[in-house]
Amino acid sequence: MVKVELLPTKVSWKNGKVDPEKATINPAAAELIELANREGYETAWHRLLQQEPQCGFGLLGVCCRNCALGPCRIDPFGNGPKRGVCGADADTIVARNILRMIAAGAAAHSDHARDILQVFQYVAEGKTKSYKITDSEKLRWLAKALGVPVDGRTDQEIAKDLVPILAAEFGKFGDEPLKFIEALAPSKRKEVWSKLGVMPRAIDREVNEIMHRTHMGVDADPVNLTLQGVRAALADGWSGSMMATILSDILFGTPKPIKYNINLGVLREDAVNIVVHGHNPVLSMKIVQVAWSKEMQELAKKYGANGVNVVGMCCTGNEVLMRQGIPIAGNMLLQELAIITGAVEAVIADYQCVMPSLATLAECFHTKLITTEPKMKIPGAIHVEFDPKNADEAAKEIVRIAIENFPRRNKARVKIPKHKTEAMAGYSVEALLQILGGSLDPLIQALKEGTIKGVVGIVGCNNPKVKQNYNLITVTKKLIENDILVVGTGCWAHAAATHGFFTLEAAEMAGPGLKKVCKALGIPPAIHMGSCVDCSRILLVLGALADALGVDISDLPAAGSAPEWFSEKAVSIGTYFVASGVLVHLGVVPPVLGSPNVTKLLTEDAEKILGGKFYVEPDPEKAAETIINHIIEKRKKLGWPT
């Protein structure tokens, strides 16, 4: 069985303050952590150190509070309780806990899809003038895939017929597989899932069944529990997340290569700075459109600013970046630091990865935190409900609040780091195909010849337990040096861009084969494919490669990595990649080590059943070496040169 040492956080105190050198490799972040230390502002790093030592039972996953018989805990050393009050042992408790993480992650990404579908329905039924179908070609591609006729029909007619089919993905009776999986997943994978009995039936049903199975007195078999987690994760990856990506492309446009700037230096001293934060492009795309309008730019000048500057944070930042080239302030751990610059008039948040601490921190400055979704309110924030039916009016109200706040800025307290980097993004599946000349053949040929050894998707969050961006960048650098093309999403993309991997010049950091391909195609050695929900784009590429080669995804020289993950969404993402036949590296130890049996199931036995497995390694150098060796072994089995 794989053994993983539970490492303490690498962040540490220095003279009673957070040590910036241990917290981050981003100089802009280090500069503002130092400012936070001097002025007494609290950040995620400060709060993590205040929590030390974190609960050992929780880190191992052997505490249960699912009912009022508890809370219960299992002694991992065998000297104390071996079962909870109900009789659940460590295997059952750990499996139930990880299952509930999958349920929450699948629910989060799939509920995102439900919100996009709601707007799509409004467009189809003519109930909103604020949104429209932008990519007709992709609409028709989806319709054909799902069996909706397109010839001689308008976009709106096609959209109307698609709505009930898409809505049924969330909830329906019967055991028929999800339509998205039937239409888009590779045939060899579907055979594996059918034999295992994990073909998803409906997104909400699979999440609901997890909550039922993990209730006291129901499922206690760790294998049976884990298989239901696989089923829910597949419903998320191959339907919920995929639907969110595809519908966003249809409504807002399918991304194409685009230049942008990233890091906290994108904030401007002379402008109204608005940070769009969260994950849902329905809000952020409209905020950008309204803020760029002549009306709002002129209003900003009236209040003494030289226009309105919208910047992105986290994945909603990725959404507007991929389609509009909006500059990015940074990834998850920079959200508090953006406020500490003293230059942000408003943080406009929809949902997911938004720290409740922003409201408290904003009180130290003139910044207004504005929440917009009924499912996410934060005490101390201004709440302005965003209605997609009247999106323009709601967006104007929100942007106006930010503009009118500009005169309250204390110029003496403004400290914007100068650091920013130019980068390239916008590599949707369609954009990559266009770069390749219309088919995957050039990529397949490069893989067969060994010019490119393999493909690795790096995704996931930041975690203050890890030196910010260090693991993400170390794994990326090592892989491209070994002729492995890196694609990815989410907070990894912000890290890679910040540290120079999204430029054409970055090809010089790659191995000779990858360098040659990058220069021939005019692409970076690391590819930005979108927000974390857009991991579904990576699934589609892997599926297409497998089908083209006549193999299963599990046969491909491919892997995944989440070096700094923290969220339940990441657990769902990792699980649906493992279930799709991919080795998935985790750089932060998941709460499963309290059960040797569940740990073995996830890190060893899963490969025999699903073709993929989890690999846990906090050291990014070791992790990269293992991934490289894994890719070499896959190449050998295919008979390709290594």
Mean pLDDT: 96
Approximate shape: globular
- Return residue spans where pLDDT drops below 50 for at least 5 consecutive residues: 1-8
Which secondary-structure class do the elements indicate? alpha/beta
How much β-strand is present in the residues? 5-15%
Summarize the main sheet: 6 strands, parallel
Number of H- or I-type helical stretches: 26
Plain-language structure description:
Mean pLDDT is 96; it is low at 1-8. The protein is of the alpha/beta class. The strands form five sheets. The chain has a six-stranded parallel sheet with strand order 8-7-6-9-10-11. It has a six-stranded parallel sheet with strand order 15-14-13-16-17-18, sandwiched between helices. Strands 1-2 form a two-stranded antiparallel ribbon. It is 49% helix and 11% strand. The protein contains 26 helices and 18 strands.
